[in-house]
Amino acid sequence: MRRVSIEPRPYHTKLVQSQGLVYTLNAGADYWPDDRYYSFTTEEIELLIQAGKDVFQMCCDAAEAICRDPTIMTKKMAIPEFAVEQIISSWDREPAWGSVYGRFDVCFGGLDHPDERLRTPKFYEFNADTPTSLLESAIVQWKWLEQTGHGNDQFNSIFEDLVKAWKRNLEEAEKVLGHAIECVYFTASSTDTSGEDAINTTVLIEACSAAGWNTESIFLQDIQLSVKDQRFHDKAGKHIDVIFKLWPWEWMVEEEKGEQCFKDMVNIGEHAKSGEYVGGTVWFEAPYKMLWSNKALFPILWDMFKDDPRGKWLLPTYFEHEAPETLTKFCRKAIFAREGADIILKDGEKVIQDTTTGQYGKEGYIVQELCQLPKYQDAKGNPMYAVLGLWFIDGDPSGMGIREDATPVTTNTSTFVPHSISDGEVTYEREAVPTLEEIDRALTMTEEEETAQYFDALSSAQGLFPEDGRPYCIVRASE
């Protein structure tokens, strides 16, 4: 794993904007700087894949254990009692369905890193409910590779796998609903002004459409709870059978209509004698994701697997009140904290970083053995810390995105840096970097033209319609 400095492509900010990355200026910084990338060997990618598979299986085992002892949810994970039944019910589905994606945050410096501790991937947490950076991970960084040629391949089959995931999951949902799904709704909050939620939701919409389903967007605030039947409808009064939400469950349960979501789920699959569907709404991601997106998962994982050979991928992690006195170097996190907020890194009495905002914490804290990210330097000698985002689509490792920050805690002012694989066969065809005229043309396209080009970009980046049917990702092809 190497951080490589390069010359950025001309007009790179406008270029990635033309590819859909509208949130390019992040707190005054360039979210996609285009002047560096991370290079991995196939061996390193295969190690990350194996580690991810192991940790995912441990997460499954932990979910099973928690569902068999649900008091853990209410007493240790700050989950309300009214959500427990549907968490267990959604977990117990056979075959499993209701989850499309998730992203682990991983600390790893490469197999040849001078610090031996950074040669083993360590998993910080699981963004299992509402992970973002989909567009840049799935599409934009692949286009970067095609246009720059910096590497032979990339660990990235994200969009292709999303299409397959929607197809499998919605086919299973139709069996339970008892009818064909006429439309899959997608929702995010109207309060997001950056465009990040809208773009990430759009990627999921495009994948669902490519899988063969009709889709419709609706703001979270526009979902109606019918006074007549206490079911969820769109603004036109049409029942919402299936919906994906880019809104975390821990916020949903605090909403005025939150508890009714869970009451409504009890009736999924019910029909009147006339055949009319009178049941509840299916929500993606499934309620059991409340177990995995919760930072309290990792003390449970450590307790269950610290003596397991797979425990090498985990950091010693405890509920704050159960942490041993010998743990003096640690990271303290609020259980529901997001975007690097309300975290304290300590080395003995020294505070390395404190991002306390007071926004999170009433739900409790965990402490995790201190494991700082690998530190690099930018062109000016300033420190940069890189965290790996390991994407899982429908339960399998699917790709990676890397974010950098100037501080050890990755915050919402981080930048995105593409990656590539240095060895093995070249798995793509080079394409020219667009001219300024072509970029401006893309930025002023009509909606119909933009949609057509977007699908072209998706099929090119992800091999949705490969002429030879060959998997484009070298790691995938070797499995």
From TrEMBL:
Domain of life: Eukaryota
Occurrences of domain Glutathionylspermidine synthase pre-ATP-grasp-like (ranges): 14-421
InterPro entries registered for this protein in UniProt: GSPS_pre-ATP-grasp-like_dom (IPR005494), PreATP-grasp_dom_sf (IPR016185)
UniProt-recorded Gene Ontology molecular function terms: ATP binding; ligase activity; metal ion binding
Keyword rRNA processing attributed: no
Coiled-coil ranges from the UniProt annotation: none
Classification via SUPFAM superfamilies: Glutathione synthetase ATP-binding domain-like (SSF56059), PreATP-grasp domain (SSF52440)
Keywords: ATP-binding, Ligase, Magnesium, Metal-binding, Nucleotide-binding
Residue intervals passing through the bilayer: none
UniProt cross-references to Gene3D superfamilies, sorted A to Z: 3.30.1490.330
Name of this chain's protein: Glutathionylspermidine synthase pre-ATP-grasp-like domain-containing protein
Organism: Clonostachys solani
Lineage, top ranks: Eukaryota, Fungi, Dikarya, Ascomycota, Pezizomycotina
